[in-house]
């Protein structure tokens, strides 16, 4: 079974499969003489939409890309568990992104169902405008405004509004198209077989379009990433990074491979805080979500030069055994605050085994060599497996994670600052480290 899993995941994440699919889409488009067309799925109360859409519109204009705009509802509970935390975090994160990228500041409103329904009806009417992108951005901003009712009054006067039946038909059609193509979130762009979420992934679409039409010049879409600028050797303080991780998260592999160098660059104390994966905490992960995450991790890992794609899912016993050893690795030598180098080395080794090497971590045949390659011998592994205390620590870490308003991994916190979710927020961790050290801020609008 492990061999079959390795073969399937290696094929699904292969460059050859991706390139072949792109070639087929390109050939089909040219044979029918059609224009390049992308679909954008716009959830009216999703704050990432009005952040991504200005960049997508500029990209479309520059490359002659036709945009089809679809109104969609919020993802269902299976695709977006802990929805209240997700919405609260999304509003904070999107406001931060808008500020970072020099966009108009986002409101901090929390629209109620009636306001969302009204905004959808206005957006449905605005889709027929000659500038629907600008209209959707304005309507979404009105929906998310602190004074949403007044703001929606203003956009309704400009664009009108559909009736309830017509609005529901549009939203349902958008949801059906999104599901057919294989996604579940708003603020997502689909182009010829591939998805690009939010503003964070549009640079991949831009690179694809530039390769096709040979465009040159400055890029349009931002790449928000680590800079690891030199920090002073003498530091008044030592910042702390809390790194929340699990052993079933492919994105955690990307974060684990990079966060040690980030901590070293800024002289930070890195603390590993492991938790059980969401699915082992009773939270579902639907197939479309697993597929997107796997393919998205592949391109993120490839950009960072990290191996990924030969996968044997460690969910269940493999994760439990790995966390037991990680718990002991963190606490080995001189205590929990000095053992994180050992812990990080084991975490990296485990994650590489599960997501890059295709090793089954449910047995000693897999776990012992993976531990041995970072200096943890069989006796230490067996001692760790006999000690259930990791379970108490994992639950305490989960409680700490939830207290930050977060729920998934990888997540991060610098000192007592707000936490951030996702390996694509490592650059924001860097900004927090620079702030903690009194260093100048990085202008992220600059390439």
Characterization of this structure:
This protein has 447 residues and is an alpha/beta fold. The chain contains 17 helices and 8 strands. A 4-stranded mixed beta sheet has the order 2-1-3-4, sandwiched between helices. Strand 1, helix 3 and strand 2 (66-71) form a beta-alpha-beta unit.
Please render the helix and strand layout as text:
Elements: H1 2-12, H2 15-32, E1 37-42, H3 49-63, E2 66-71, H4 83-100, H5 113-126, H6 132-143, H7 148-159, H8 164-181, E3 188-191, E4 194-197, H9 202-213, E5 240-245, H10 250-265, E6 269-274, H11 287-303, H12 317-331, H13 340-357, H14 364-372, H15 378-385, H16 390-403, E7 411-414, E8 420-421, H17 426-436
Parallel strand pairs: 1-2, 5-6
Antiparallel strand pairs: 1-3, 3-4, 5-7, 7-8
Assign the structural class, choosing from mainly alpha, mainly beta, alpha/beta, alpha+beta, or little secondary structure: alpha/beta
Q: Note the quaternary state here.
A: single chain
Give the overall silhouette. Answer: globular
Q: How is the largest sheet built, in terms of strand order?
A: 2-1-3-4
| Radius of gyration from the alpha-carbon trace, in angstroms | 23 Å
Order of helices and strands: HHEHEHHHHHEEHEHEHHHHHHEEH
The total count of strands amounts to 8
């Amino acid at each position: 079974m492990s061999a079959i899993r390795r073969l399937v995941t290696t094929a699904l994440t292969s460059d050859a499969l991706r390139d072949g699919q792109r070639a087929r889409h390109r050939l089909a488009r040219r044979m029918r003489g059609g224009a390049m067309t992308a679909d954008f799925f716009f959830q009216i109360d999703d704050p990432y939409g009005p952040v991504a859409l200005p960049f997508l519109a500029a990209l479309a204009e520059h490359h002659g890309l036709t945009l089809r705009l679809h109104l969609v509802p919020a993802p269902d509970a299976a695709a977006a568990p802990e929805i209240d935390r997700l919405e609260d975090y999304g509003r904070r994160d999107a406001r931060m992104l808008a500020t970072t990228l020099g966009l108009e500041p986002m409101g901090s409103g929390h629209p109620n169902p009636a306001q969302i329904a009204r905004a959808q009806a206005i957006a449905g009417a605005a889709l027929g405008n000659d500038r629907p992108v600008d209209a959707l951005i304005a309507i979404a901003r009105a929906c998310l405004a602190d004074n949403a009712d007044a703001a929606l009054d203003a956009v309704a006067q400009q664009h009108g509004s559909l009736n309830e039946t017509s609005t529901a038909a549009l939203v349902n059609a958008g949801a059906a198209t999104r599901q057919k193509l294989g996604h579940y979130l708003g603020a997502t762009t689909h182009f010829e077989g591939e998805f690009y979420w939010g503003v964070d992934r549009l640079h991949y679409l831009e690179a694809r379009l530039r390769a096709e039409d040979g465009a040159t010049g400055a890029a349009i879409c931002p790449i928000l990433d680590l800079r690891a600028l030199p920090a002073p050797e003498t530091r008044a303080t030592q910042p702390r990074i809390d790194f929340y991780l699990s052993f079933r998260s492919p994105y955690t592999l990307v974060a684990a491979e990079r966060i040690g160098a980030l901590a070293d660059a800024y002289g930070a104390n890195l603390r590993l805080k492991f938790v059980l994966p969401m699915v082992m905490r009773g939270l579902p992960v639907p197939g479309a979500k697993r597929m997107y995450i796997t393919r998205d991790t592949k391109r993120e890992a490839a950009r960072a030069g990290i191996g990924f794609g030969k996968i044997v899912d460690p969910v269940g016993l493999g994760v439990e055994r790995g966390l037991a050893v990680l718990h002991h690795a963190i606490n080995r030598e001189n205590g929990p605050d000095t053992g994180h180098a050992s812990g990080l080395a084991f975490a990296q080794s485990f994650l590489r085994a599960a997501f890059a090497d295709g090793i089954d971590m449910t047995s000693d045949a897999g776990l012992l060599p993976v531990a041995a390659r970072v200096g943890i011998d069989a006796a230490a592994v067996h001692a760790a497996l006999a000690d259930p205390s990791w379970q108490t620590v994992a639950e305490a870490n989960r409680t700490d994670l939830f207290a930050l308003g977060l729920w998934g991994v990888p997540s991060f916190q610098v000192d007592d600052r707000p936490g951030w979710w996702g390996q694509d927020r490592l650059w924001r961790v860097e900004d927090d480290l620079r702030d903690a050290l009194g260093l100048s801020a990085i202008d992220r609008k600059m390439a």
